[in-house]
């Protein structure tokens, strides 16, 4: 029986911790890929990232990530005067940031292929076992 702290008998806290870790890695990838493609004004990047399904990021958490990526030498910034208010900060991936984004993307794609392959193998095995329902 499920309690408020369990989902299908599993710890809700465990699932939430797992999703937080997944989102952190995916968010770094999303930021670096976006900044590898072109320069972004900070607020426009924040709005684009908040709209990514599943990432579930709060606006206030992106600026500290951008600051960390800048300190790590993965992102550069520049200020540009604006007619609509204060100066705007623009972000762009460095050569190192672009290289890391490509490596992260390749690893993520490999992981997805591996998970899909494992699931296919598990399904095929389950289909061969007597007394089990087909998975398709």
Description:
With 136 residues, this protein is α+β, with helices and mostly antiparallel strands. The chain has one domain: Orthogonal Bundle (Arc Repressor Mutant, subunit A). The protein is built from four helices and five strands. It has helices spanning 12-37, 42-50, 59-71, 95-128; strands at 6-7, 10-11, 40-41, 75-82, 85-93. Strands 3-5-4 form a three-stranded antiparallel sheet. Strand 4 and strand 5 form a beta hairpin. Helix 1 (12-37) packs across helix 4. It is elongated. The model has no long low-confidence stretch (mean pLDDT 88).
CATH superfamily membership, which one?
A: Winged helix-like DNA-binding domain superfamily/Winged helix DNA-binding domain
Major beta-sheet overview = 3 strands, antiparallel
* Distance from first to last alpha carbon: 28 Å
Q: What percentage of residues falls in helices of 4 or more residues?
A: 55-70%
In the CATH scheme, what's the topology name? Arc Repressor Mutant, subunit A
The total of helices stands at 4
The total domain count is 1
Notable traits:
alpha+beta, single chain, Arc Repressor Mutant, subunit A, two-stranded antiparallel sheet, 3-stranded antiparallel sheet, 136 residues, elongated
Blueprint of the fold:
Layout: E1 6-7, E2 10-11, H1 12-37, E3 40-41, H2 42-50, H3 59-71, E4 75-82, E5 85-93, H4 95-128
Antiparallel strand pairs: 1-2, 3-5, 4-5
Helix pairs in contact: 1-4
What's a quick, concise take on this entry?
The chain has 4 helices and 5 strands. By secondary structure, the chain is of the alpha+beta class.
